């Protein structure tokens, strides 16, 4: 069983180094978790995005449903809770989302009719109110940032923000914002709302790519070099151990390829160090003046 144990150790060490080598990719692709309120000045990998100046906005989608019209109102505020003042229908507390709401959907039906004087007037009926993202005692916002993929390295990739905390009849809801770096800011654009997930696209100008610190760049290069060398050594040991086991039925330490060489490595290193020390002394060792 010793040979199996040794092979397992080699395999575990190999994949551990692979994961270590991919740390940079994980930091880019995996979400950066934000605990409570949303910190909207965020840096992911080498890219900075400042969303602090984004105000709460309303997205209006109207569909003809004769004899009335269906109006979908999406109130969004990525950085702080919505203010009651933004809601169109706020005479009744049941016509809008409560406090600590970041994203709210209000479904309204409108219908035009003539009054006694023959003038047109609009009647409104708030049919549904849905809290899509919130942060209160019952629901946690659990905001998270991540980067979208981008092939052009000279550009800044879109920033993805996910807000949670919405529930309806036991089903969770969430809002996903895609912030696209642009020369000018724009109002948010509705993409889709399906299976409880609202997707919004928003162009922003406050984004940039941070220059890489030279010391950090050198450190990363040296770390990657050591990682590659370690992977090559482990690959050599793993393949050699498998070969010795299947061909020579070796066990235990005999699985190590070229075992005699590795056994002599410490002595070789010692001899090299002694040679270097003697060379540094300039050959004066062993000579004494008369």
From TrEMBL:
GO terms for cellular component: cytoplasmic vesicle membrane; Golgi membrane; mitochondrial membrane; phagophore assembly site membrane. Coiled coil: none annotated. The chain crosses the membrane at residues 225-245. PANTHER family: AUTOPHAGY-RELATED PROTEIN 27, MANNOSE-6-PHOSPHATE RECEPTOR FAMILY MEMBER. Residues 1-25 form the signal peptide. This is Autophagy-related protein 27. One of its GO terms (biological process) is autophagy. It comes from the Eukaryota. Keywords: Autophagy, Cytoplasmic vesicle, Disulfide bond, Golgi apparatus, Membrane, Mitochondrion, Protein transport, Signal, Transmembrane, Transmembrane helix, Transport. It comes from Ambispora gerdemannii. It is found in: Cytoplasmic vesicle membrane; Golgi apparatus membrane; Mitochondrion membrane; Preautophagosomal structure membrane. It is a single-pass type I membrane protein; Single-pass membrane protein. Residues 38-210 form the MRH domain. Belongs to the ATG27 family.
């Amino acid at each position: 069983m010793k040979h199996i144990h040794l092979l397992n150790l080699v395999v575990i060490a190999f994949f551990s180094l692979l994961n270590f080598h991919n740390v940079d990719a994980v930091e880019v692709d995996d979400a950066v978790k934000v605990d409570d309120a949303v910190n909207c000045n965020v840096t992911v990998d080498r890219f900075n995005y400042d969303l602090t100046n984004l105000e709460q906005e309303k997205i209006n989608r109207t569909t003809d449903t004769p004899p009335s019209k269906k109006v979908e109102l999406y109130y969004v505020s990525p950085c702080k809770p919505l203010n009651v003042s933004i809601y169109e229908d706020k005479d009744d507390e049941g016509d809008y989302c409560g406090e600590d709401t970041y994203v709210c959907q209000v479904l309204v039906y409108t219908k035009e009719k003539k009054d006694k004087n023959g003038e047109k007037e609009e009647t409104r009926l708030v049919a549904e109110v849905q809290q899509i993202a919130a942060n209160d005692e019952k629901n946690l916002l659990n905001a998270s940032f991540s980067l979208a993929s981008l092939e052009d390295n000279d550009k800044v990739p879109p920033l993805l923000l996910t807000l949670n905390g919405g529930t309806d009849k036991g089903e969770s809801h969430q809002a996903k914002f895609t912030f696209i770096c642009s020369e000018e800011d724009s109002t948010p654009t509705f993409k889709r709302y399906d299976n409880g997930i609202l997707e919004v696209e928003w162009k922003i100008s406050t984004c940039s790519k941070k220059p890489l610190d030279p010391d950090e760049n050198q450190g990363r290069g040296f770390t990657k070099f050591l990682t590659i060398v370690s992977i090559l050594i482990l690959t050599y040991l793993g393949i050699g151990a498998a070969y010795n086991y299947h061909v020579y039925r070796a066990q235990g330490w005999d699985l190590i390829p070229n075992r005699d060489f590795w056994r002599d490595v410490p002595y070789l290193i010692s001899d090299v160090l002694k040679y270097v020390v003697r060379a540094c002394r300039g050959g004066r060792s062993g000579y004494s003046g008369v």
